[in-house]
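Cross-check.
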Amino acid sequence: MNKLTIIGNVTRDPEVRTAPSGKVVCNFTVAANRRKKVPGQPEADFFRVSAWEQKADLCAKYITKGKKVCVIGSVSVHPFTTAKGEAAANMEVLADEIEFLTSRQEQPQIDEQTGFQKVEPDGLPY
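Predicted model, tokenized:
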């Protein structure tokens, strides 16, 4: 069985495109923090995620950079050779299930005209 569960934050806004087959795909990256910090090791792991068709449409609509998500899916590894001739591989998660964990209250309200986040006076630090 090939199943991976990731909970983390989206590192940048998702990219949506149409594959040559005509199906819509949404790609994004999730940063999952490590529980134990080991000196010399990164503190987070980054996972490339692909969501297809209806899931792609939902991800494009509701996911933005910084949002917390849970992704469950299968992992595939794609080996390739770098321009320097070195062997490398890309790991990708094919999303079977995606849950949006950032609540509506936590989502920043963006002013349509200015493009800035609305802030209530009580929320200011001074």
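The chain has a mean pLDDT of 86. Residues 53-62 form the longest helix (10 residues). Passed to J.P. for a second look.
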